[in-house]
Amino acid sequence: MLEKAIERKLMTLTKERGGYCPKFTSPGTAGMPDRIIILPGGKMGFVEVKAPGQQPRPLQKVQHKKLRDLDIPVYVLDSPDTDTITGILDAIQAA
What we know:
Layout: H1 3-16, E1 35-39, E2 43-49, H2 58-69, E3 74-77, H3 82-94
Parallel strand pairs: 2-3
Antiparallel strand pairs: 1-2
Helix pairs in contact: 1-3
């Protein structure tokens, strides 16, 4: 399964919750997570989308740690499984 298919499912399930899931792109942000998840109630987190079985690159791990050190949730998603994606969205909503 391609990373893009997992990303589309994340976007769809986020939208079904009334949320917004824009792609995070900006100069000077190499290694930052792919998507910002913004949910009702001002809840926010980041999701790094990977192909099944793939892991974040070293620079991505550094950026994830910087965000987590600021108490911003960061998740790595490598599965199109609805329960997995729902679990991530539930965790962001509960944060």
